[in-house]
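In this supplementary section we document a worked example of the pipeline. Step one takes a protein sequence of length 586 as its only input; no multiple sequence alignment statistics are reported here. Step two produces a three-dimensional model, which step three serialises into structure tokens for compact storage. The input and output of this example are shown verbatim.
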Amino acid sequence: MRQGTCRTSFWRLTFATVDDSLSTDDKSANNAVAYPPVDIVVVAHNPDEWFGDVLTSFAIQDYPDFNVIVLTTGEESTMRNFVFESLPEAEVITVDSEHGYGRNLNSVLDLERSSAYFLFCHHDVALAPDALRLMVEESLRSNAGIVGPKIVNWDRPDELLDIGFSVDKLGFLIPRIESGELDQEQHDSVSDVFVVSSTVALVRADLFRAVSGFDEEMGMVGEDLDLCWKAHLAGARVITVPLALARHREERGKYRSDGEEEKLQDRHRLRVILSNYGFFHSLIILPQAFLLSVLRSLGSLLIGDLGRARLLIGSWIWNLSRPRSLFMRRKKLKVVRRLPDADIRSLQTQGYALVKGLFKDQSDDQARPSGMAQDRFKRFVQTVREGPSKVSAVFMVLAILIFLFGSRHLITRKVPVIGDLVPFDLTIQECFSLLFSNWWITGLGHEATNPTALGITGLLGVFTFGSMGFLRLVLTLGMIPIGVAGVWHFLKPFNSPWIKVAGVSIYFASPVPYNALRSGSWSALILYGVLPWLLSYLAQAGNLSPFGSIGGTRGRSVLPSNWLREALGIGILSGFMIAFVPFAGV
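The serialised model returned by step three reads:
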């Protein structure tokens, strides 16, 4: 396949800008240009029928100097016979699928090659005949270290799949296109991006060696974010060339599965920010990343998604259990670092992509039901924006304004000590110490089991970062909006904003919580806040129409039954309520 004779070293980008004549079909012009050699590297699993189309797309490239390396995880002789039908001069090398995608691609660094570029491709990607040439030309013209093409659907070439990504400071990818967006040449200009997908990525060989290739701990998901981030730190540009076209089948392969991909995304995203930020920015970014993980875990627990919470916590455990690997990556990166983190931050999107995504409009395909807390919140925001739910939005705004105005002095000053509304003058440590001791300090003091409420107060104090005064405010005034939200949730299966607004208005106007505040009855406040949620979970657990899954069309539940979520919800709410109001168990 090597048609050129020039095999110069490529440790620095010393090629002159390619003349426009390079894009013509003039053979004499082509022969006059010294083309940098390229190795097309693909990891293949099985000689599927469509893989023949992939190999054919490599064979018909109009670039004059390239070679194809097929890294096979299957039977070498079978794959070799299959590959040689389209590419008789290609190289077929056996690799271990257990090593992971990144480690297998890094095996090209062990080969003694003088290639100027590596073109890494997934096994289910077919290139347009001029794709490789256009990417190399633009790399030379723009002095770019990593170049990506426009990636479209294999069967529907008018549907865009990938045109590069931006990223926020926590490593969340932000696509530059919408899901299902049609290609109308709206993105057909060369653009700087933060991340080019490893689906198809042209990488300068000297840059790839300098940054030690892909992170071998990552396998497949997230390895492109890490590579591009390191390229930026080394001072290289990352661009997309939309005129270069690639079709992608989106086959799952051995490296990806539905059950594993989400776990790997969070795990590897966290590894990227742990290994690529400098010391100062790590002190700023990592606490934010940890707090976001805690909030997402709590949201998952509230909807009974224990698997999601375990996944988020497991991401931190997985990364922190590999300190040697992280320090080695950071040490190697320090050698090639050319840009400070402040410059890297200027290339990233400001704010939090996850938070912005909650309020982003969704297409019908994007709005499919999901158990994740952020997806439920997205659907809630979407329904508020549309149709009769505008009534709900107006009511919520008015209710919030009335609540804030009516309780302004209690919020800005102090909740008075009256009745049960005692001051929280114990620290978190003192709460737990009293809980586990056998001495009850009330009155003259005596030996007795201390109430569970002490432990709950201490635990809740952790989430308010030790501010017990703020916790007292939340557990008094906060019971009113919590109870109102519970009634809203209780009436949700009726699918009518008017019913929800009417029910919540009656509950909000009830004098019970305001009389409880006047008399200092904390028991009444807690019952007011907790009972609507408890009734909602009990109705769902009992499959009572319209809350359960029975009752015909009208009885279809908006919230599908989930016995684990309902059991946890009932148990937590009952335990909390009885701990503070013992007679509530009746």
